[in-house]
Structures are given as C-alpha cells and as structure tokens.
C-alpha cells in the first residue's frame, strides 16, 4: 500500500505527485503515456501497471487529467471496483454540471467522492500561494484535507454541493480571462508607445492590493444592489475606455478588446446606468 495515488501526470498532475513525494508520502502514479512517469519514479514514486492497480494501491486517489471526458475514459469498471469504499479526489477542471453528474455516479458505485479545482500554476503546487477549492460531503473533505494541505497553502471547503468548487473555478476563470486579455492589450499599448514592458508589469503588481480591495467592493455593490453612490461613475469609466479605442487606432494596434469593452459600457449608459457604479455593466450582461 502507498499513502496516495495520482492518476494523470501532465503538467499539473506531475506537480501534485512531486509535492506528495517531497512531503514524504508514499506515492503511486499512473498515466496513459507511461513515459511521463519516469522522473517521478526516479524520485521515489511507485508506477502502477494500469489505472485499476493504481487505484487499489492507496486509500485516496487524486485524478488530474485534461477534463471530465478524460477522467471518464479512465474510470472504467475495473477502476471503480478498486475505488469502492475508498476516496477519489477529482482535480481536473470541469463544469459544475459535470462535477455533479460524476459525484452521483461515484456515490452509486460506493466511492467517497470529493470534487476540487486548483487555483494555482504547477510551479506553485506545494507552496503557500497555491489554493485548492473542494466540494462534497464534509466527512470526505475532512479526511482528505491533510493530503490536500501537502499540495496547497490554501485549502477551502466550498460546501457539500459537489458542483460548488467547479462553480467558483468558473467564476475565477471568467475574471482571469479579462485579466489575460487586458494585460495583452496593455502590453500592446505599452510597446506601441515606447514604454518598458517590465515596468508595466511592475506597475500592475504594485496595484495588486488595490485590485483585491476593488474585487471585495464590487462583490458588495452587486450583492447589496448598492450601485447608486459611485466614486467613479459608469459613464466616466466608459468615456475613458472609449479613448482606448482612439489610442489603439492612433498607434496602429488592434482595437478588438477596447471596442468590446467600450461597447459594453456604451450599452449600459444607453440603458440609463451612466450615473451608477461602473460595475453596473453587470445589468446589461445577464
Ligand atoms: P496536460 O499537461 O495537458 O495533461 C493532460 C493529462 O490528461 C495527461 O496526463 C494526459 O495523458 C491526460 N489525458 C488526456 N486525455 C486523456 C484520456 N482520454 N485518457 C487518459 N488520460 C488522458 O494538462 P495539465 O496542465 O496537467 O492540466 C490538467 C488539469 O489541471 C486540467 O483540467 C486543467 O484545467 C487543470 N489545471 C491546470 C493548471 C495549469 O496551470 N496547468 C492550472 C489549474 C488547473 P497523456 O500524458 O497520456 O496525454
């Protein structure tokens, strides 16, 4: 027997297995393409000959593959028989519906199931910055928590609804999508105007605490419906963003992102929300 099994040894699964090994746990691994296990085996992991043997080797199995379809391809009858009465922690990314469907299937097969989502890059796994959000039965979470703490400084039980972790991940990813696209357009602006890209990155890093505070503020505004007392009105932010379109055209860079953003603010202003908080754009996004 080993302490934990990791199935899926891509970028993230390998990082999970490495963190378990570093923390002193006896770790069994399996991956569809066995070559990816070589470094981990050299570091002390046991390589199972197939996924069912991997699941049979430990009381807890962590699966981290591309998506739920990949996980379903692995979780065949033999694997499910091996998992019966044991714990499966699913850390592949999926939708809340996929998580709830898989949880129901696992319950029907007598598998103790925890659904999770990883809010970290592989290089952060095992460190304080990494966060893992999990959802499912309280007792299963409490049993798995010490293992998850070997992977992430932040371990959050998002609730008993198995879809809750995937739901939070989806909300965070929606934010990150804007962050990545916005950064890329900002880099084009900086480069087209002769600014230092590293300086642009540093400026944003310096703003991180205030961006965090703004996230709390926007959540409170939307949850409480308190749009009416803006520090910066939606119309003001919209006019600033419309100028981004002009800058892009002046500089000869793409204007797809500022045009999308400006259009959203224009529609919100046209709908009568110009004097409200800028996050009142949510009212025309639903
Ligand atoms: P990856 O490097 O592309 O690895 C994908 C893994 O899935 C490999 O082990 C691959 O096996 C396996 N796989 C895919 N289809 C399969 C199938 N049909 N049957 C069996 N195995 C299959 O991806 P990753 O970066 O490790 O990501 C894994 C999960 O972590 C994803 O859900 C991702 O959203 C999540 N995640 C990743 C990050 C990140 O920064 N990388 C961050 C947060 C969350 P083979 O090696 O045989 O192809």
From TrEMBL:
The residues covered by the 6-phosphogluconate dehydrogenase NADP-binding domain are: 4-157
InterPro entries membership: 6-PGluconate_DH-like_C_sf (IPR008927), 6PGD_dom2 (IPR013328), 6PGDH_NADP-bd (IPR006115), HIBADH-related (IPR015815), HIBADH-related_NP60_sf (IPR051265), NAD(P)-bd_dom_sf (IPR036291), RedAm-like_C (IPR048666)
Q: Is the keyword Oxidoreductase in the record?
A: yes
Do you know which SUPFAM superfamilies this protein is assigned to?
Answer: 6-phosphogluconate dehydrogenase C-terminal domain-like, NAD(P)-binding Rossmann-fold domains
Single GO MF annotation: oxidoreductase activity
All copies of the NADPH-dependent reductive aminase-like C-terminal domain together span 161-285
In its keyword annotation, does this UniProt entry include Transmembrane? no
Keywords assigned: Oxidoreductase
Known PANTHER family for this protein? Answer: CYTOKINE-LIKE NUCLEAR FACTOR N-PAC, OXIDOREDUCTASE GLYR1-RELATED
Q: What is this protein called?
A: 3-hydroxyisobutyrate dehydrogenase
State the species of origin: Caulobacter mirabilis
